[in-house]
Amino acid sequence: MNKDELELRKGIIAACRAMNSLGVNQGTSGNISARYHDVMLITPSGVPYEDLKPTDIATMPIKGEYGSWKGPLNPSSEWRFHLDIMRSRPEVGSVVHTHSTYATTLAICGKEIPAIHYMVAAAGGPNIRVAPYATYGTPELSELALKALEGRTCCLLRNHGVIATGATIKRALWLAVEIETLARQYYLSLTIGGAQILPDDEISRVVEKFKNYGPKAKPTALKEAAAKSKPAAKRRK
């Protein structure tokens, strides 16, 4: 295992612990995956996050024998939709699955999240859809999730939870937190008469503005990375 893969494995574990401390997940109900070249790294099934070690993270080929894996522990029972998202969406570098309270409450009621706030644009469109119910870990659930994710970066799963995707673990986790915030706002708005929904054309404008929105590396870190990527001869000038 090289340094880059080790750091990515550590990042998965850190994000697992963070999603619980941030209040968007409970226990080991959620799971996280990340793309590493031609394989997917994914949390194992049922292991408390505080006990996870980098070597516990399972490895699955994105192409090749479907469902095969390596590691000391079984991959998450939800590996199917993680893998199918990675296989069908090359821009996705990480998938975060949570059972956050407000978003899951809406999913239990079959309520999608409409454009109650411009932050819905982070989903890639004017709503966050709800995929119909299917038993966890099944091909049916994966198929329904992929359909709900068409043109979107996230979705709710009926009577289940949330899927958030991103180019990086940090981006996917950020989105999972945003989804829960929106879900809470929507839930509360329903208790006082309902929300005023923003029009689709406004959300389309915000989607364009959001293409470079979200968590970013600090400028100093970007400069350091750029400097390291330059040939030594050029850096000496």
H and E string? HEEEHEHEHEEHHHH
The strand line-up of the biggest sheet is 3-2-1-4-7-6-5
Largest sheet composition: 7 strands, mixed
Protein structure class: alpha+beta
Distance between the termini: 35 Å
> How many strands in all?
7
Whole-number radius of gyration? 19 Å
Proportion in β-strands? 5-15%
State the share of residues found in helices, binned by percent.
Answer: 40-55%
Estimate nothing, just give the exact number of structural domains.
1
Shape: globular
Q: What is CATH's topology name?
A: L-fuculose-1-phosphate Aldolase
Mean pLDDT: 92
The count of helical stretches stands at 8
Question: Which characteristics define this entry?
Answer:
single chain; 237 residues; alpha+beta; seven-stranded mixed sheet; L-fuculose-1-phosphate Aldolase; 13% strand; disordered C terminus
